[in-house]
Design goal:
The chain is mainly beta. It has four helices and 48 strands. The protein is globular and about 100 Å long. This is DUF5686 family protein.
Length: about 750
C-alpha cells in the first residue's frame, strides 16, 4: 500500500511483466477515498490526490490485482492463468444505456477549447455555446462566440466541425470526422464484450472491448457505473491504431448528460489524414497519411447550468447550429469572464503566432480551403467556379471556360454571376449571366434572374434542387456525343420550407436548335428548331440532415440518409410563343446503410414519366456511359458515379423510365498508409417505354420495355485516386458478341 501524504500528484506507467512492449490501457487505479482513475492508451496515468489520499489497488481483467509495489514510474502487472472477471450480458448494458434517455427537455451551456500543436504553430479554437436538447428538435446550439487564435474571420468549418459526438448512445460516434461503433447502442452490443471487474455498494467498474480483435472502428474502454442512479458516472475509451486517442467523459448524474470531456489525439501508425482545415495546411493538422512529426490534439469541454423542464422549447429556427454574427471579433478578454480557467489559459506566444499567420498567409488559405470544398476559389469579392475551367466531350472537344460569382465579401444580400466557355472542336462560345437577391435569410429565400446560351445533353433530366456536387472532372461528359443548343432566360424562386425541405420554382423561355439532323413531327409539321415556355417546381427532402446558419447563409452540417427529390415540369403551347404542350414528372430516393464493420450499402431508386408532345431532347435516358466503339479496350474510358457502364450512348430513350442502382462498398483494404483500395460490388437495372417513337425523324433508338440489367465491381483508389471498373450486360438486351456486353474502365475518386 502506497501512502502519498507528502505529495499532491502521482504519475506513472502500467505494463505487463511478461511482455515489456505491452503497456496496459484502461487499468483502474482505486484510492482509499473510493476515487477511480484510469491509465491511458499508453498505460500512463497522472493522479491528483487529496490530503491523506493514497492509491491502494490497481485492477485489470486478466491480470492479478496489484496492491503493493515499489514505485509508480514503471508498474508491472502479472497475467492470471484464469480470468475471474464476470462477463455481463448485452441486455443488461442495453438497460443501463436506456437510463440515459431523456424524457424531458433541457437547456444548458457549454465552453470548449481545442488545441492542436505540431512543429509549426498552435491552433486554438474556443467556443461559447447555449444548447437546447428537446424531443422536438434534438440537440441545437446557439453560438455566442467562436474564435481561432490569429484569425479574425469565421469560416463555416469553425462552427460546423464537431470534435466528437455529443451522444454516446447513438449508432456511431464521430471523433474528428472518423466514425466509430458506439459500445452502448442497442444495435452494436453484439460487437462488444463487457466484464464486471470490481464492485462496491456504490460503484461497479465495467471493462469493455471489441469482440473482433484489431477492429479499427471500435474502442477499448472502462465504465464506472453509479449504483444509486443506475447511470454512467464516467467513461474512458482508448484507441491505438491509425491514430491514437484517449477520451474521458464524466456524466451529470441528474440528467445523465455529459458534463466534462477530455480528449487527446496523437499520430498513430498512419493511413488516416487528421486535419481541421485540410488542404495540406500544417496549421490545425495532427497527422498526414504518413505521419512525419509529433503532434497532439487536446480538447476540453464542459457543460453546465443544466435546467430540465417540459416547458423548455427548442430554439425557434429548425437548425442544429446558429452563429448570427460571423463578423464579430472576440477579444482575449472575453474568455476571462468565465469561472473555468482552462478556457482563458494562454497556450502559445502571441507574437510568434501573429508572425506565423502573416508569413504563411493563413487567413486567406483558410478562406480558400473553405470555398474550395464547394468547388470555388475566392479572389477578392468573387469566387472562381472550378467546375467550369476545363471539360471535354465528343462535340465540343476541349471545353475551356471561366465562371465567376460574387461572394459574401461583395454582399450578404445580393449576388451576381456569369460564365463563358469555348469549345475547341465546335468553335463556338457559350455564356450566361445571373443575379440573385436574398429575400429572407432564415428560409434561404432567393429571387433570381438568369440568361444562358449553351448546349445540353439530349435526354438529360436535371433536378433543380440537387445540391451542388464538386469533382475535379465529370466522368460521363467525356463520351457524350448528342447535344442540343439552347438560348434560355427566366426567373426563379428558391425557398426552404424548413432546412430539411427545400424547393425551387422556375419560369423560363427557351429557343432550341439542333446539332445534328433531327426533326420532330407534331400535328403534321416537322420541327428542327422550336420554342418552349416552361414552369418547373422541385422539392428535395432530407429528413435526417442537419443544417447550420453562419451569418446569413445556410450550410449543410451533417448528412444522413435518406434523400428524396421530386420535380414537376410543364411546357405550355401558345404561351410566349411556346410550340409544345407536355408534362414531365420525376422522383428519386437515395439511401445509404452504414454497417458497423465499415462497409456501406447504397440504393438509388428513380422514376420518370413524360406525356404530351415531347421532342426527343426532353425525354429521358438512363445515364448510358459506353462509347460507341468496337472492342473492349477501345471503349476504355472513365466510369461514372451512377451510370450504366455497358449501355451505349443514344442506344435507349424513354418517356417512361424506372432505374435501380445498388452498391455495396467494403471497408478499405489497408496495404500501406497510402494504398488503401476499396472494393465496390454493383448491380444496376432499368425498365421503360417510349410513346409515339414515329414522331422522331432521322434517328433510331430502342426502348427499355424488356428490362436492362448489368452487374460489376469497382476496385477504387488503387493509386493517386485512380482505380478500375468492370461491368457485364446480361438479360433481355444481351448482345450477340460477348465483348460488346463488357465494360472495362478506370475510376477516379480523390479527396483533397
Amino acid at each position: 500500500m502506497l501512502n502519498s501524504y507528502a505529495q499532491s500528484s502521482v504519475n506513472g506507467k502500467i505494463g505487463d511483466n511478461s511482455n515489456k512492449q505491452n503497456f496496459i490501457s484502461n487499468a483502474v487505479l482505486i484510492t482509499n477515498q473510493q476515487r477511480y482513475f484510469f491509465s491511458d492508451y499508453n498505460g500512463e496515468f497522472s493522479v491528483e490526490l487529496n490530503q491523506g489520499e493514497f492509491i491502494y489497488k490497481v485492477i485489470y481483467k486478466g491480470f492479478e490485482d496489484l496492491e503493493i509495489f515499489e514505485n509508480f514510474s514503471n508498474l508491472k502487472m502479472i497475467p492470471k492463468k484464469s480470468i475471474d472477471a464476470k462477463e455481463i450480458e448485452a441486455c443488461r448494458i442495453d438497460s443501463i444505456s436506456k437510463n440515459h434517455s431523456f424524457f424531458t427537455n433541457y437547456k444548458f451551456k457549454s465552453l470548449s477549447k481545442t488545441r492542436i500543436t505540431n512543429q509549426k504553430s498552435d491552433f486554438v479554437l474556443r467556443k461559447d455555446i447555449d444548447l437546447r436538447l428537446t424531443r422536438q428538435e434534438g440537440l441545437q446550439m446557439k453560438f455566442n462566440a467562436v474564435s481561432v487564435d490569429g484569425i479574425d474571420e469565421v469560416v463555416p468549418k469553425m462552427v460546423n466541425k464537431d470534435i466528437f459526438s455529443f451522444n454516446w448512445f447513438q449508432t456511431h460516434v464521430e471523433i474528428f470526422d472518423e466514425r466509430f461503433v458506439s459500445p452502448f447502442n442497442t444495435f452494436n452490443l453484439v460487437n462488444y464484450k463487457f466484464y464486471s471487474i470490481y464492485e462496491t455498494s456504490e460503484f461497479e467498474v465495467i471493462q469493455f472491448e471489441p469482440i473482433l480483435k484489431g477492429f479499427q472502428r471500435s474502442f477499448k474502454g472502462i465504465l464506472l457505473l453509479n449504483k444509486s442512479t443506475s447511470k454512467f458516472e464516467k467513461i474512458q475509451v482508448t484507441l491505438d491504431a491509425d491514430f491514437r486517442l484517449n477520451m474521458t467523459t464524466i456524466f451529470d448524474l441528474g440528467s445523465g448528460l455529459p458534463k466534462d470531456i477530455d480528449l487527446n489525439i496523437y499520430p498513430g501508425t498512419g493511413g488516416t489524414k487528421l486535419s481541421f482545415f485540410g488542404g495540406g495546411m500544417s496549421f490545425g493538422r495532427i497527422q498526414k497519411k504518413n505521419p512525419d512529426d509529433e503532434a497532439e490534439l487536446k480538447h476540453q469541454q464542459v457543460y453546465y447550468d443544466f435546467v430540465a423542464s417540459d416547458s423548455i422549447s427548442p430554439f425557434p429556427k429548425s437548425l442544429s447550429k446558429v452563429l448570427e454574427d460571423k463578423n464579430q471579433i472576440i477579444p482575449d478578454a472575453y474568455w476571462e469572464n468565465f469561472e473555468f480557467s482552462f478556457i482563458s489559459e494562454k497556450e502559445h506566444n502571441t507574437e510568434d503566432l501573429v508572425t506565423y499567420v502573416e508569413e504563411e498567409n493563413i487567413k486567406n488559405r483558410v478562406e480558400r480551403i473553405s470555398a474550395f470544398d464547394a468547388g470555388y476559389f475566392p479572389v477578392g469579392i468573387v469566387d472562381v467556379d472550378l467546375t467550369r475551367l476545363v471539360k471535354a466531350n465528343n462535340y465540343e472537344g476541349l471545353r475551356l471556360g471561366l465562371g465567376l460569382q460574387t461572394n459574401q465579401s461583395f454582399s450578404e444580400k445580393y449576388r451576381l454571376g456569369g460564365f463563358t466557355a469555348y469549345g475547341t472542336q465546335d468553335g463556338n462560345f457559350k455564356y450566361g449571366f445571373n443575379a440573385g437577391m436574398l429575400l429572407n435569410s432564415d428560409s434561404a429565400t432567393w429571387f433570381n434572374a438568369f440568361y444562358d446560351n449553351d448546349i445540353e445533353e439530349v435526354g438529360m433530366n436535371n433536378y433543380l434542387t440537387d445540391q451542388r456536387v464538386y469533382s475535379l472532372f465529370e466522368p460521363r461528359l467525356v463520351n457524350i456525343t448528342f447535344f442540343y443548343k439552347y438560348e434560355k432566360y427566366g426567373l426563379s424562386l428558391q425557398h426552404n420550407f424548413s432546412p430539411q425541405l427545400i424547393s425551387e420554382f422556375k419560369l423560363d423561355k427557351s429557343n432550341i436548335s439542333q446539332t445534328r439532323n433531327y426533326e420532330f413531327l407534331n400535328d403534321g409539321t416537322l420541327y428542327d428548331n422550336y420554342n418552349l415556355t416552361s414552369a418547373t417546381f422541385g422539392l428535395r427532402w432530407t429528413p435526417n440532415y442537419t443544417y447550420s446558419k453562419v451569418g446569413k447563409r445556410i450550410y449543410i452540417n451533417n448528412t444522413s440518409a435518406p434523400e428524396v427529390s421530386a420535380q414537376l415540369s410543364q411546357s405550355f403551347n401558345g404561351v410566349l410563343d411556346g410550340d409544345f404542350n407536355f408534362t414531365k414528372l420525376s422522383a428519386k430516393v437515395d439511401y445509404d446503410f452504414i454497417h458497423s464493420w465499415g462497409s456501406v450499402s447504397s440504393i438509388e431508386l428513380g422514376g420518370d414519366l413524360g406525356f404530351g408532345d415531347i421532342p426527343l431532347m426532353h425525354t429521358f435516358h438512363a445515364f448510358p456511359n459506353s462509347p460507341n466503339k468496337e472492342g473492349v479496350f477501345n471503349r476504355f474510358s472513365v466510369a461514372g458515379v451512377k451510370s450504366f457502364e455497358t449501355m451505349y450512348f443514344n442506344e435507349f430513350f424513354s418517356t417512361k423510365l424506372a432505374t435501380l442502382h445498388m452498391k455495396h462498398r467494403l471497408a478499405p483494404f489497408k496495404i500501406s498508409n497510402t494504398i488503401q483500395p476499396e472494393l465496390v460490388l454493383i448491380s444496376r437495372h432499368a425498365i421503360g417505354d417510349f410513346n409515339n417513337p414515329e414522331q422522331h425523324q432521322n434517328i433510331s433508338f430502342n426502348n427499355l420495355s424488356q428490362g436492362y440489367n448489368e452487374a460489376g465491381f469497382e476496385l477504387n483508389k488503387l493509386l493517386f485516386g485512380f482505380g478500375l471498373s468492370f461491368a457485364y450486360r446480361y438479360g433481355a438486351y444481351h448482345l450477340p458478341d460477348l465483348e460488346d456486353n463488357i465494360s472495362f474502365k478506370f475510376t477516379f475518386y480523390l479527396k483533397l
